[in-house]
Each structure stands twice: as C-alpha cells, then as structure tokens.
Design goal:
Blueprint: H1 2-16, H2 18-22, E1 29-35, H3 39-50, E2 57-63, H4 70-80, E3 84-88, H5 94-104, E4 109-112, E5 118-119, H6 123-133, H7 142-159, H8 165-171, H9 189-194, E6 203-212, E7 218-220, E8 226-229, H10 231-239, E9 251-254, H11 270-280, E10 285-297, H12 313-328, H13 333-350, H14 357-372, H15 374-378, H16 385-395, H17 398-416
Parallel strand pairs: 1-2, 1-4, 2-3, 6-10
Antiparallel strand pairs: 4-9, 5-10, 6-7, 6-9, 8-10
Length: 417
Amino acid sequence: MGRQKGIEEKMRVVEEVQRERIGREVLLISVIVPVYNVAPFLKRCLDSVRSQTYPRLELLLVDDGSTDGSGKICRSYQARDPRFHYYYKDHGGVADARNFGLDRARGDYISFIDADDYVAPDYLEYLYGLVRISGRAGQSGQESSQKSNQESGQESSQESGQESNQESGQESGQESGWESGQESGQESNQESGQESGLCAAAMSMCSLCVCYSSNGRRISRGDGKREVLTGKECIRRMCYDDQVDTCVYAKLYDRALFDGIRFPRGRIFEDMAVTYRLFDRCDQVACGWQPKYYYMVREDSIVTSSYSPAKLDLLIMTDRMAAFVKGKYPDLAQAVLRRRCYARFSTLNQMSGLKGREELRIQKKMIRFLRLHSRQLLEDPALPWRDRAAMVSILLGLPFYRFVWGLYYWWQRKRRV
C-alpha cells in the first residue's frame, strides 16, 4: 500500500513538469489506423487523432479496399494535414492492414486506433507521459534492438509453422487441444526462453471507455490509478480480464517490440495472437487506468456479429497463447486455463440456436473441454463470479446453461439502458 502511494506521488510530481520536458525530447509516434468501410464513423476518429496534444506524430491511414467512400475521407485529411499519410491496398483484413502500417511506420513508438473508435485529445500525451515517468522514454537503444533482432531470428521458424514437438505432444490426443498438427501454431520452449525482456516500460496502456451505439451509454473501465507491472503480470491479468486486456489499441509500444512480430494474416481476433508476446518482451509496462480510448460497440462489428466459422479463430489464437505461456511460465497454467474456458464459453454463446451437424459437433467438443476442466477451474480463487456461474450451469446441462446465460444477458442489457 505504501509503495503504491509512493509511486502515485512520484507520478504526480513528474506530471507537473511533463509538458515542459515533452518539448525538449520529442520522439515521433506513428499512429496506425486500419480503414475498411467505416465512412459513418471515420471523421470522428480522424478528428480525434488530428486534435492530439502530443506535438510530433505521423498518422498512417491504411485503406483495406474500402468501397463506401472511406478512401475519399482519408484523402481529404491527407490534403489538409501533412501528418496524415494515406495508403490504399487490396482487402486483406485488419491484421494485414496493421502489418502494412507497421512496415511503413517511421516512429520511435507505435499506437493503433480502430477507425470506428476515437480517442481523448491527450491520448498519446498521456501514454507517452506514462512511459517517461517510468524512465523508459528516449531509451529505445541499441540493447533493445539487438535483443529483438535476436528474437526475430528465433521466431522466423515459428512464423513459418514450425513448432515444438514437445509442446505439440502435450496437447495432441486430448480434448484440451483445438487444433492438430502444424496448424496448432504452438510455439517452442526454445523460443519462449529467447523471447525475454526489453528494458523497463517499453509499453504503456490506458483504460477504455466503452460506448454503446444503440443507446449512447458510456461505461468507463478505469479506476484512475497508475501502476507499473511486469510483462508476466500483464499476461496473468490479461487471462483473468483484470483491467489488462488483449486488444492492441489503447497502448503505446516501443517500435523494437515488433521486430519479428506481425499479426496473423487472414485471421480475426488477431490481437490475441500478438498482445501476450509483446507483454512477454517487456520487463515493465506502465499502466494508467484513465479512460483515454473510446471503444464503440456496434451491432455489426466482428466481436458482436452473429456466429460464422471464422469465429473459431478465437479458440485457435487462445490455444496458441496458452501453449506459449505454459511453456515459459508454468505457474500461469491456471490463468491460461481460465482464458481458454472463457473463449469456449464466448464461442458457445455465439452458437446459440444453431442446429447444423458441424455446429453441433463443435458445441459438443467445447462442452467436453469445459466439463473436463471444471473442477480445476472452480478451485481457482481468482476465477470471476461470472465464469463460476457459467461453469456450474454447463455442468447441469446445455439447456440450463442457455437459460442462465439468457438471464445474464438480459441483466447486462438492462444495465446499459
């Protein structure tokens, strides 16, 4: 408690001279905005980025083959503000658009913003201030780059689909695995050992303010506190949805973190495939739980839209994360199990009402996994109450679970009105 108060007091003192210092050592921040058919929301997003108080940034607008006039809007901003750089490419998905931006970014730091979201005017200044306060800013030095380059070499074989036989053997033949063979993407213990920390606070993050397009309600996920976490602790808290999330937006990254790391092209839920690896490369992560990023919940977004086979990517990405984390941090096995069960509950909810043969087979497989691990999960004192209720319900049968989930969903919607 005393240590936390000391950290907060230090942060307050440093913040008083933040604006003066920020003018002396101003590093370039690259903001990557993937754009695809978001014309109704795009101006709000770009206006919020254009109004940033941080003085030195470049804005990479990556048009992923839009057909609704989004490109015209992007070009108009480029014409008015030299910080905007517009790129058009054939449609390849959000992951491909982010990779496109990463390959062209010139900044010392990187941040991502989704085109249907928007940010507070001091979003970048706040994130950069967290990095400075932690003593990290301006030190993306040679040692960091050398470490990442070494890791890049280790990762190249993994990216091409070569995984550890040892880890593959641990998952094969069990109900706990979602994939088989090389598609499982499980990463080698050797890579896990190599993928170790850059210097302190190579990353900072803020909280989200969740905005519901249906009724305009906003819910802040932040409590206003600040703290410095290890990369490992970020992974643990990410697995429990304890303030730290899997999304790549609402964060600021030293560009060296992305050496050898790119988003998996052609997948959705691509954030899950990358965020834990970036955390793993950080000795420390500076966290400020002020809601500076406004996340829009739309009925037609990837997350909220109805089930499609592509939604199974959530299971694939989560299981890859689990294999990596368990290989390097065996003491986080319980945390990653919670995340794997959460992914299956989430997918099961998406499949409500589907009666096709393949859909029923997938549902049965997920239920077997949940029941197989129910005792271990229920013994976890850190398990959120919602997960506990879901697990008890599924043990009593899928119809009962559907009934309980329906009540919970009704209660959640009522809270948002």
